[in-house]
Request: fold
Amino acid sequence: SHEAAVALVKPADLGPTTPSGETGGESSPHGSPTQTSPDADLQHANELVSLHYDLKVKYLEMGPDPELVQAERQVDQVISALNTS
Reply:
């Protein structure tokens, strides 16, 4: 489900405390250079999950694209013609 996918990419809420290995990070919990890349990766993954969910909802609400349906019919016709040859 969408909620399960989002839960996989959202970082756990660690609260105001920082792990014992971090030093001098009082200004911002995201100021550490070691957190920049993983946070960017998590943000990108979250955006992909949201995009996938939005497309899925749009498909369910509006159905498939008419041009895609027509292309599918044409492919089926070609395959059928090849099988009868």
Residues 17-35 have pLDDT under 50 and may be disordered. The chain has one domain: 2-11+33-84.
